[in-house]
Write a structure and sequence with these properties.
The protein has about 170 residues and is mainly α. Helix content is about 75%, strand content about 0%. The chain is built from 9 helices and no strands.
Length: about 170
């Protein structure tokens, strides 16, 4: 195989990947959206347990915070699933993951981070969800979302304009 053939194959591969640029955003939104929707639904269905759990963690105003977090997770999960207000919702949900890492999952996170326990960082759900949420905050909902549709209809300009896809790097 010559250098020209390898360059051509590389160009075609990058072009193909450019056409699939929408897949990671969609999959991330769906996985994270379902996770938070289910968590919020569980908290809402068992609000007394949620309030008691928040009180045990010494979270201030446990009733108020439990009600807020349950609804944020429930409705925020729905919004992520459809890709509406993705960056705002992901940022708000990120704050709940930080609180979870500082309270309920603190020791597990420390053990995983320092490699002193039997689990790794990928086993700490709030950490993994936090990483995925930060990706959504930075990248946005992606092409297959209501955010993108509304940007096109309203004409506010899409934040995606500055992003370069794999297909564009070889053009």
């Amino acid at each position: 195989m010559g250098a020209s053939t390898i360059r051509k194959a590389s160009h075609q591969g990058l072009k193909l990947l450019g056409y699939l640029d929408w897949v990671p955003g969609l999959l991330t939104r769906l996985v994270v959206g379902f996770a938070f929707f289910d968590a919020g639904k569980g908290k809402l269905a068992n609000m007394e347990n949620t309030v008691n759990f928040f009180a045990e963690l010494n979270i201030p105003f446990p009733e108020l915070n439990a009600a807020f977090v349950a609804r944020l997770e429930y409705y925020g999960g729905m919004l992520l699933l459809i890709g509406l207000l993705t960056r705002v919702v992901a940022l708000l949900l990120s704050s709940t993951m930080i609180v979870a890492l500082l309270t309920a999952d603190r020791q597990t996170f420390i053990d995983a981070f320092t490699r002193s326990g039997e689990i790794g960082l990928s086993d700490v759900s709030p950490f993994v969800l936090g990483v995925l949420l930060s990706w959504l905050v930075i990248r946005g909902a992606g092409a297959i979302s209501l955010d993108t549709l509304l940007n096109r209809i309203i004409g506010t300009g899409t934040p995606e304009k500055g992003r370069v896809t794999a297909a564009e790097t070889t053009a």
